[in-house]
Structure to design on (83 residues):
């Protein structure tokens, strides 16, 4: 698991999983299907990507396919880092 993957999994587990939810996040946890990402949590995730990882996600990338799980988010981040 890459450092970015680990940081993202940790952020989601610590900040997006609500108290009382019995969800253990890993890189393949379905974020949309599980209900972990709603509009507010997505905004928090985008803020984390911008502030902590230094990656701004343009509006064109705000597609559900890019936020299915940590693996797809990391792929998008890596793509944006090379642009």
């Amino acid at each position: 698991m890459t450092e970015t993957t680990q940081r993202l999994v940790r952020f989601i587990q610590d900040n997006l999983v609500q108290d009382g939810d019995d969800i253990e996040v890993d890189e393949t946890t379905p974020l949309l299907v599980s209900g972990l990402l709603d509009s507010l949590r997505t905004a928090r995730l985008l803020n984390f990507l911008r502030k902590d990882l230094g990656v701004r996600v343009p509006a064109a990338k705000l597609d559900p396919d890019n936020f299915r799980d940590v693996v797809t988010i990391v792929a998008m981040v890596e793509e944006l880092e090379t642009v």
In short: The first helix runs from residue 3 to 15. The chain is about 45% helix and 0% strand.
